[in-house]
Specification:
Blueprint: H1 11-17, H2 35-48, H3 62-74, H4 77-92, E1 101-110, E2 124-126, E3 131-140, E4 146-153, H5 158-169, E5 178-182, H6 188-195, E6 200-204, H7 220-230, H8 237-240, H9 252-263, H10 276-297
Parallel strand pairs: 1-5, 5-6
Antiparallel strand pairs: 1-3, 2-3, 3-4
Helix pairs in contact: 1-10, 2-3, 2-10, 4-10, 5-6
């Protein structure tokens, strides 16, 4: 008897997903394994992080599963499925299927192997994050749903990575007109998005540093605060101290939550893929599984 896994598609989820799955060809040898079984195996790999060759025997042979994953990656089937499910989910939320605003950000991840290992020339060193590996560049809408994913070397600056991301998303997002970015994209990245893409770009900055409670500090803020204290003015140091814990920046927290959802899949803990295209396909697969679950619960 075949064992079921928590990553398998339920009947309700498959009923939401099946209309968007490519129809098998009528010609050729009859298929032994259904599309649902192939998808269940791919979702298991994404969630568990196991290598292809360690796929449990309850699924189709790993060679078959990988062949279909590679085919769907090359012909962009996973990206089209992500777009179709995103439009359906946005419509159910009462939003326009095509978003008019987006948020972009990057995440540096380590890769496996050294020199001759995974990644090859697509590996690099991110001096800002002190990470050797790759960057995942994501463009999401205001509902946290993925619009475009681009994986490249970590040595590529965010300003240049933004151009790679938006150029690849130009054709499928005709309604996109506004973009929120963090301060790391200021300069040529922001200018290119405004001039070449015609977008209105808003940079979301972190709140200014509060005045330190240490009045003896040598900084300029501490000096004028100390002068105020000498004049008898009451200074509320508790109010000026930075808030404790995580502070959600406007709009920026949306894409950060998407990164958090992706990190719940063990295949996303590092970049294990030899090709950047495979890493992008796994990002789309993780978001597809999340959206199918949402549609079935709606």
């Amino acid at each position: 008897m075949k064992r079921s896994y928590s990553t398998d598609l339920t009947d309700a989820e498959w009923s939401c997903f099946e209309p968007h799955v490519p129809v098998p060809r009528e010609r050729g040898r009859p298929r032994i394994h259904t599309t649902r079984e192939i998808l269940n195996a791919i979702f298991y790999v994404v969630r568990s992080g196991c290598p292809w060759r360690l796929l449990p025997r309850d699924f189709p042979p790993w060679e078959t599963v990988y062949w279909w994953f590679r085919r769907w990656r090359i012909d962009a089937t996973v990206e089209r499925l992500n777009a179709a499910l995103r439009e359906v989910l946005r419509a159910r939320l009462g939003r326009d299927p095509l978003p008019s605003a987006g948020i972009a950000d990057s995440q540096s991840t380590k890769t496996t192997g050294v020199r001759t290992g995974v990644g090859g020339e697509q590996r690099g060193y991110d001096g800002h994050k002190k990470v050797r590996g790759r960057k995942r560049h994501l463009l999401v809408d205001t509902e946290d749903l993925l619009l475009k994913a681009k994986v490249h070397s970590a040595k590529v600056p965010d300003q240049d990575g933004l151009r790679l991301l938006l150029e690849s998303a130009r054709s499928g997002l005709s309604r996109l007109s506004h973009l929120w970015l963090d301060a790391g994209y200021e300069g040529r990245g922001k200018r290119w998005a405004e001039d070449a893409m015609g977008l209105s770009v808003e940079v979301v900055r972190k709140p200014p540093k509060p005045i330190p409670e240490d009045r003896t500090g040598g900084g300029g803020e501490a000096l004028w605060a100390q002068e105020w204290a000498k004049e008898g003015k009451k200074i509320d140091w508790e109010r000026l101290m930075p808030p404790r814990g995580y502070v959600a920046l406007p709009h920026r927290w949306v894409v950060e939550r998407t990164f958090s959802w992706l990190s719940q899949n063990r295949r996303m803990s590092k970049d294990y893929e030899r090709l950047c295209a495979s890493a992008e396909a796994f990002v789309y697969a993780a978001m597809i599984r999340l959206m199918v679950r949402r549609l079935a619960r709606a």
